[in-house]
Every structure is written in C-alpha cells, then in structure tokens.
Design brief:
4-stranded antiparallel sheet, 523 residues, disordered C terminus
Length: 523
C-alpha cells in the first residue's frame, strides 16, 4: 500500500509543482490587476452607499433643512461655531434655552414659524443644526473609511461651489478669513470650479441626475475620485452631496508591460495545461472514469456483484488500484451501513420530536395554555429586527386583571386562577387575529397585527362592554365577575425607536384605564 501511494504521489507532485510555478507567476500579475479593479468597484459602492445614506437623512429632515440652507447662505459670516466641537447637544440646549426665554417649548411634535424667531433664536438654531449635520457627515465618512464627505451649494451663473458642509474643518482667523488656527469654524468656503475642469460635478447639478462616472481630482488635497448625488426636498433641487476616495497613481508603462507578460504567460499556461490533461487522461483519468461507471451502476442497481468486476479490472500498483480495491470492499459492507443509518435516522427523528415538544412547553404558560413571558421576549426581538429593517406595522395592547389579590385572599388561589383563565379566554376571543401572551400573574399582552390592528378601537370597545357585563352579572360567582383594564398603543415609525417605546405608552394607557375603573367601581 505504501509503495502504491509513493509512486502516484511522486508523479502528481512533479506535475503539479511545474503547474503551480507557472500558475503562481501568472497569478501574481493577475492578482494585482484584479485587486486594483476590485478596489475601485468597492470604493464606488462605498461612495454610493454613503451618499444614499446622507441623502436619506437629509430628506427625512424635510423643511428644516431648507430653512437651514437658506439661513446659512445669508448669515454664515455672522456665525460663531467652535472649531473643535465634538458634540451638538450643548448647542441644542442653548437653542432650547433661547426658545424657553421666548416663551416657547420644543418637543418632537412642535412646529414653529422660523421667520417669527428673534435673531438670537435663529442664530442659536443655525449653530445647533450646523453642528449636527457636520458631525453627521464626519461620522459617515469615518464609518465608510473615506477621506472626504461634503455638501455643495452651486452658484451656477459663475460656476462656483460653496462648501456649505465641508469635508475638512477650516479655522477662522480673527479677521474673519481662513487661517491655520482659530477658535471658530470658517464657513461659506467657496471655490471657482469651471465646467471644463469639473464636468461630472456640473453635469450632476444641471441634469439633476447621478452620473455613471467619477470626477477626478488631483490637487493639494490628494488624488481622489469623487461621486455626487443631487439633493431634492419636496421637489426642490438644493445642492450636491459629495464623497471621495483616494487612488494610487497607475503607471501606464507598467500596465502595458503587465498586459504583454500576461498574454505570454497565458499562452504558456494553456500549452502546459493541455499537455498535463493529455498525460493525466491517458495514465489516470481513464481508470477513474471506468471506476466511476461501475459505482454509478452500483448506485442504480444496488448489485453487490459489481464489486467482483471492480476487483477484476484493477491494474498497476498505484493509489487508483488501492482505491478500487477499497471501494470493492466497501460495497460489500454498504448493506450493513444502510441498516445502521436507518436506525440512527429513526432515533434522530424521535430526539427532534422530543426537542420540539420541550421547546413548545418552554414557551407555553402552564395555567392558561397561551404563550408565556419567554415567548413574548422572543417576539420582542423579532419586532426589533423588523423595526431596524423599516418594514413593520404593529401595536401593543396591555390587559391587567383587577382585584386579583382580593380574590386570592377572600376565596383562595384556586378561584384566583379561575379568574385569570376566564380573563384569558375573553382576551383570546376578542383578539383572535393576534398573538396573546401572559407576562405576569395578572398581566396579558397582545401584539396587535392584521385585522386586529386595523379594528383596534372597535375591539377595545367590545372588550370593555363584555368586561362590564361580566363584572355586573350577579348570576356569576364573585371570582367569575372578572374586571380588567385595557390600554393600547400603535407603533409610530417617526417617533418610536424601539418596541419598548410602544410598550410604555400601552402600559400608561392601561393604568389610566385602571385608575378610571377604580374611581367608578365600589371597592
């Protein structure tokens, strides 16, 4: 056996050593070219991603960004924005303080008439918003590992570009001009970019569409390729979002020589591979093909006598002969292996069934049979993923059983359990299109979906009517006269950042209802 392996190993080692040397030489050149192209493609994709990301953020701000841009272009020279700021919350608090002094209070849903602001309030708003957007551009640039991201406002009549949100901070000197150092940001940096020098940039602006090519820059800021996206808000074209990546200079002569060498190596490689294939086919592949045909026939017919044929066709003393002998022996044992596999498969199925049963029990409430707190936590994770994807509509209803402690203390825990199950039955009956969870002793949660989400007000009214009827039905036992408070909240993609936001609002609504019911119910 060792002698066979040695001969075949030597033959293939010699053949593939020669092949590997040629392939490595060719591969070193092709890898350089391939990675250069791959880098450019990846960089282009990065530019598109970051521009799309920033565009989406700005468009979500809507009218606020239009107001910010207009004020910027008119008052940037008056602004005093710290050069080294690292967060915008200080400016935000200052803006809110100015509003408060004006008798105004800002929250997420409050809209103000910017024109009615005092000049102090307008400038405070501008400083806060500019710091926010500058940090947003800088963080996006770092996240995508790019040298520059910026926002341009064209002055098309003179072919100038105003770097409204600059990709590189510039200090403002005491004279109000650019400087190498200073406490404040220099704003309104403006450059003359003639069309013949920047055709891609201006074509993007004039056509209002993205171009399928880069703008090449080679200046004191480096050799970069730039990509631009026109910004539209409410149909109004406002400016250009730009992002750049750096590229190394490519020597044309080196590329030409590389192409010639690649062609020559390719010809040699083709000849070597052809000769290699002829040799391997004559000496080895024919035997393997014959062995494969016997194995296919065995696979179709399951005839163990084919093992005798394989043994009869063995020639030589190499690894193929050894493999043929081993396969012939293996065929004779396959019947035993199949039986073992079938037995193992049956045991595995039984184990899986037990595991599934245990999993179902782990997610079921022992008292009511509905889903429990563990299942509810799993559902929360699913909803958080869907919120992150931006494709979800749901609501949360909170139901709390009133007076459970009184029932337990007065009539016993068995009657308390009966009250819980009776309430559970009613909840499942009303919200028949949504999953119901018991998350505490007397607390139930419904994840509102589909028809239940659409008809929530009608369902809540139905629930309250039935609860009211049960609590006032003197034909029932005291523990059967269940009383419960219900509150709900609907997910709002504009204000809710997590399921917990919706849960808290639903919980608050439920406790408001509970308070109301206690106020009108005799205790």
């Amino acid at each position: 056996m060792k002698k066979r392996r040695g001969k075949l190993l030597f033959k293939f080692a010699f053949i593939f050593t020669v092949f590997a040397m040629v392939a490595m030489f060719l591969g070193s050149i092709m890898t350089y070219i391939s990675q250069t192209n791959s880098y450019k493609k990846a960089a282009l994709q990065n530019l598109k991603c970051i521009c799309d990301y920033i565009e989406q953020l700005i468009q979500e701000s809507g009218e606020d960004f239009i107001i910010y841009q207009k004020y910027y272009m008119e008052h940037f020279s008056e602004a005093r924005i710290p050069f080294n700021f690292t967060e915008y919350h200080t400016a935000q608090r200052n803006y809110e303080k100015v509003l408060s002094e004006m008798g105004l209070k800002k929250d997420e849903n409050t809209q103000f008439n910017f024109d009615s602001f005092s000049e102090e309030a307008k400038m405070a708003y501008f400083v806060y918003i500019h710091e926010y957007w500058l940090l947003t551009f800088e963080n996006a640039r770092k996240a995508f590992n790019l040298p520059y991201t910026y926002y341009l406002v064209p002055k098309e009549e003179i072919y100038n570009m105003v770097y409204m949100i600059d990709g590189e901070r510039t200090p403002r000197g005491l004279n109000g001009q650019k400087s190498t150092k200073g406490p404040y940001l220099y704003l309104g940096d403006e450059y003359h970019d003639p069309y013949e020098k920047c055709p891609v940039q201006w074509d993007t602006w004039f056509t209002g569409e993205r171009q399928n090519k880069f703008q090449v820059w080679n200046n004191e800021w480096g050799h970069t390729y730039a990509f631009y996206v026109p910004l539209y808000i409410k149909g109004q074209k406002l400016g250009l979002i730009g992002a750049e990546f750096q590229v190394e200079d490519v020597n044309k002569e080196i590329l030409r020589n590389a192409a010639v060498q690649t062609f020559g190596v390719g010809v040699v490689l083709v000849i070597c591979i052809a000769m290699l294939l002829i040799f391997i086919n004559k000496r080895y592949i024919h035997k393997i093909v014959r062995l494969e045909a016997n194995l296919i026939e065995y696979s179709d017919l399951k005839d163990p006598t084919i093992a005798q044929r394989i043994e009869a066709e063995i020639t030589g003393n190499d690894e193929i002969a050894s493999l043929s002998s081993q396969l012939a022996a293996l065929i004779l044992k396959i019947e035993d292996y199949i039986k073992t596999l079938l037995d193992t498969s049956q045991k595995l199925k039984a184990s899986q069934a037990r595991a599934e049963k245990m999993d179902a029990l782990a997610n079921r409430d022992a008292l009511t049979g509905i889903r429990n707190k563990t299942a509810y936590d799993n559902e929360l994770r699913r909803l958080e993923w869907r919120i992150a994807e931006g494709n979800v509509e749901f609501g949360i209803a909170m139901i709390d059983l009133n007076f459970l402690k009184r029932i337990n203390d007065t009539f016993g825990h068995e009657q308390g359990n009966m009250a819980i199950k009776r309430l559970c039955s009613l909840v499942c009956q009303v919200f028949k299109h949504s999953p119901v969870f018991r998350i505490g002793g007397d607390e139930f949660v419904v994840i509102l979906e589909h028809a239940d989400l659409k008809d929530i007000d009608m369902l809540c009214m139905n629930f309250n009517i039935q609860i009211d009827a049960l609590s006032k039905n003197d034909d029932l036992q005291p523990w059967e006269q269940v009383s419960a408070a219900l509150g709900y909240a609907i997910y709002n993609k504009n204000s809710d950042t997590s399921v917990q936001n919706v849960f808290r609002r639903a919980d608050k609504a439920m406790y408001s209802r509970k308070k109301e019911m206690k106020a009108i119910r005799e205790i």
